[in-house]
Amino acid sequence: MGLLVFLHIFLLSVIATAPWADAWGKHGHFMVCKIAEKYFTEKTAKAVLDLLPKSAEGELASVCSWADEIRFHYRWSSPLHYINTPNCTYKYSRDCFNDRGQEGMCVVGAINNYTEQLRSYGDSSDRYNLTESLMFLAHFVGDVHQPLHVGLEADEGGNTIIVHWYRRKTNLHHVWDTEIIDTATRDFYDDNINSMIESIQRNITNGWSDEIDHWENCHNKYKTCANDYAIESNHLACRYAYKDAEQDSTLADDYFFSRLPIVEERIAQAGVRLALILNRIFDGSVDDMIQSS
Ligand SMILES: [Zn+2]
């Protein structure tokens, strides 16, 4: 192999694994979708199974990082993973644009758009590739819950804030995508992601059960509640993610133990809400049930 070819491949692999190529890391998205699957109604489970690609082997969670894998191939989809805000407020009409000024090209617009597309499931028209719509939607509902996916434009959602996670050099965005989750899995769950999922699920049915109603509803419903999820994330980013995480700081036990509960709750919320959105799309009876409760 020539040196140039080698360098080219090496650089491509560096780019592909660069931290900003991630959303929640693979584990975060897997957990969100695994939790969602538990709350699917029968009709939803059937529709999801019908739409999943063969490679998923019947499991939505296995394709929940697909949108990250193809984002350099589908370049137009790159801005759909996040929203940048100019300060600690988020406004759809001001912030939901790509860099060409096209409205709706952000994570909230994407959730609304793919929800709308999936509503055509069962129509004879095949206007959309609903398999891709489902994989995009499942991923973006995860992303909008990662606080730094609705972070500040000035630091690209924490990507330009270089920190040490214990002794390792990384950036703040990556801490929230991956490091907090991986450290928790290693230290508390014997490196077993399924144990962490089970623990979050136990919290949904016990610790957070009083809050589920609140998670399922929102003030400004426009197609979905995604706009409110983004407001929550922006708030959490400013209040917790950026706090005590200046350029070149070292983040260790204090930061880890105080932020882990937030990460776990956001993963739980994303899972419950993804199931709710899909149940509303594929099983109309659910909408009534939720509104009357
Ligand atoms: Zn993403």
From TrEMBL:
Protein name: Aspergillus nuclease S1
Similarity comment: Belongs to the nuclease type I family.
Catalytic function, reaction form: Endonucleolytic cleavage to 5'-phosphomononucleotide and 5'-phosphooligonucleotide end-products
Top-level class of the enzyme under EC nomenclature: hydrolase
GO BP terms in the entry: DNA catabolic process
Keyword tags: Disulfide bond, Endonuclease, Glycoprotein, Hydrolase, Metal-binding, Nuclease, Signal
Signal peptide coordinates: 1-25
E.C. number(s) listed in UniProt: 3.1.30.1
Pfam families associated with the record: S1-P1_nuclease (PF02265)
Domain of life: Eukaryota
